[in-house]
Amino acid sequence: MTNHCLEVGIVCAWLRAARKLHFSEMLLDMQLRESQAVGEHRPDIVVGNLAIEVELNHKRKETLTRNVLSNELTYDGQVWLVPQRKSNIRRSLAEIFADNVIDETAKILCLEDIHQELSLCNIHNNTWQAPPLP
Questions:
Q1: Which of 79, 132, 134 is nearest to 107 (CA)?
Q2: Backbone CA torsion sign across 11, 17, 21, 25
Q3: Distance (Å, rounded) from C-alpha 46 to C-alpha 113?
Q4: Distance from first CA to last CA of the chain, Å, rounded?
Q5: Helix or strand (DSSP H, E) at 47
Q6: What is the pLDDT of residues 110-129, one digit of tens each?
Q7: Higher confidence at residue 131 or residue 35?
Q8: How far is CA 93 from the centre of its chain?
Q9: Local confidence band at 88 (pLDDT 50, 70, 90 cut-offs)
């Protein structure tokens, strides 16, 4: 749980630095919880109409499928950030995307790439030494 919260914070910092989003443009799970029914799936971060999920641990395929389909119905796109060493999660997500004909805006990105890109940021003048990830 603590690692997940830290990773969500890192992704928010990356969105701020790489995508020039203000923190007020990001809704977190906790904020979404206030307006949604108990037990309803909530992405970790919502930016505009984009769901962002930080997936650190393997879940049953049925659970992942339910979450992917919920995002597909509710948002215009979804991005899943998964640690590189968790190839089983990436593989499951790719299979779910293919099996359910998920919109091509859905992406699976490597969490370490986000870390690397954020580490290149000069926090003193908000400049980047590397192009942003796709």
A1: 79
A2: positive
A3: 20
A4: 28
A5: strand 45-47
A6: 999 999 988 887 666 555 55
A7: 35
A8: 13
A9: very high
